[in-house]
Amino acid sequence: MNTEQLQLVWQSAVSALPTLLAATPVTLGFALGAMLLGLPLGFAVALARLSRFGPLRSVSSVFVSFIRGTPLLVQIFVIYYGLPSLGVSLSPVAGGVIALTLNAAAYLSETIRAAILSIPKGQHEAATSLGLSGSQTMRLVILPQAARVALPSLSNTLIGLVKDTSLVSVITVVELLRSAQLVIARTFEPFGPYLAAALIYWVISSLLELVQRALERRFSRGVAVV
Fold first, then answer.
1. Fold of 3-219
2. Which of 27, 25, 72 is CA-nearest to residue 163?
3. Where does the ABC transmembrane type-1 domain lie (predicted)?
């Protein structure tokens, strides 16, 4: 690549930045929305998988296995293009959020379940000896410790969601990647816009990693145990 080509790439990347930055909040909104919705759903699925009630445990296990065993892109197609055949039509935004939320919930449930199981059984026994109920034990003793264990994986899931939002571009959601494609359709110069989009994804992921490390340092000071 000669100097003239490098200059052309640089100019196309810079000219694409305003459009890409305008779409960045959409990408962040999808990622944060899926995380905020997926976290309580994932917690519920984790508790279902830990339940002593067999049918509930089986249904939740099948859900996790199906979501983790199929590509997110296929899940988006099933929800956005498949559901209308059953009489359920969704907007691109709703379809994208639902697909990302269900996907995140399945992975988050495994993280939460593993974190809960990592807490020594003695913590449960000590809480019981102090007269705490099952729900109090979970809320006051187990979850604070499990949160510290799960934090790195939870943060990684959010970073992964930021990148996974690029897949909703296939259902015409104008997020970061789709914006780059629209710029390319006007300029016929793909390298610069795609490179600019990649750099924005990288910056977002790097900032989230900094937040993750700060939270890990705070949690590393320890949480109270019984």
1. MetI-like fold (1.10.3720)
2. 27
3. 24-212
